[in-house]
């Protein structure tokens, strides 16, 4: 594969991550507008929101079977436009059933998109022979910042969700379709005969389990910040409503910064060291949030959280690719399910603990879970085993 083709593939995939970041942020930041448009009650809203990650998890598992036939590039080429059109459909309806169908289709398409994007990212990293996975997720974070900013503009000018999203989709849909022409996959490595016997179900799951737990814990932490940072600042630290919007924005910015420089850290120090450092920083951030005496201290703590959590998810996908080089697509598809597991657990868990105990105490739960990641850091490989940085052959097993 020529260097020029790899560079085009890397650029087009980064653009896909960016488009998805914009799209997802446009949806989640306008949930109040969706609720008002369709008259969804507070009691019913959690069911609607939970349906999206559940269906996404189902689609992620199904994608494993589809890519075995057509490849992840084909899945991504069609899933991304479908996600954009589903976003428009969410804003176009008027009846409750229409919202349910549109959100359901959005969830199914997102599951296929997330899985196929990360499959391509893992295979491209293998082809490059060095860490580039964090750069793709940095593009996603940048898209999230842009999408949240566009959503703020729409809310400020009292635009409907459809009116807010239509011009954005009109720009991003052609970009996604044109960019998809240059998607490339680096290809799976050969399965080593001495490891082939480990491919039966339980052995493969045992090897993947530590990464599944890390993925779950990382998304419990992320969903805690996304769903509770504003409420925590306003209700616990007694900030103004305007100031309560700052922590998540600061978290997104530092997540982008951490991912922008994270690949350099992996190349210099190795994936395991970067994951350990990120987990410790994230745990420290949650501890400081729980102990914060005031609003600005809380904002600083949430900012630190972004730096810590930023490296965990991309490196977990990359580690799955190293662990299963002969069948990385299947490993990524299964690992991606735990993205949604963490999302489903995190927000309700913190909310329930906050109501029953205290929100300060509730912040200690994701702190402990993220800190457990340090125990599993060896699953991310030694410095010698990282791509392009040593001579140790990664273990190769079949997850199929």
Automatic annotation (TrEMBL):
Keywords: Membrane, Transmembrane, Transmembrane helix
Cross-referenced PANTHER family: BYPASS OF STOP CODON PROTEIN 6 (PTHR23514), INNER MEMBRANE PROTEIN YBJJ (PTHR23514:SF13)
UniProt source species: Streptomyces bikiniensis
Domain annotation Major facilitator superfamily (MFS) profile: ranges: 208-400
Organism lineage string: Bacteria, Bacillati, Actinomycetota, Actinomycetes, Kitasatosporales
Transmembrane regions: 12-31, 43-62, 74-93, 132-153, 159-178, 199-220, 273-292, 298-320, 332-351, 357-377
Record localization: Cell membrane
InterPro entries (alphabetical): MFS (IPR011701), MFS_dom (IPR020846), MFS_trans_sf (IPR036259), MFS_Transporter (IPR051788)
Main location: membrane
Keyword GTP-binding on entry: no
A Pfam cross-reference name: MFS_1
UniProt membrane topology term: Multi-pass membrane protein
UniProt KW RNA-binding keyword: no
Protein name: MFS transporter
PROSITE patterns noted in UniProt: MFS (PS50850)
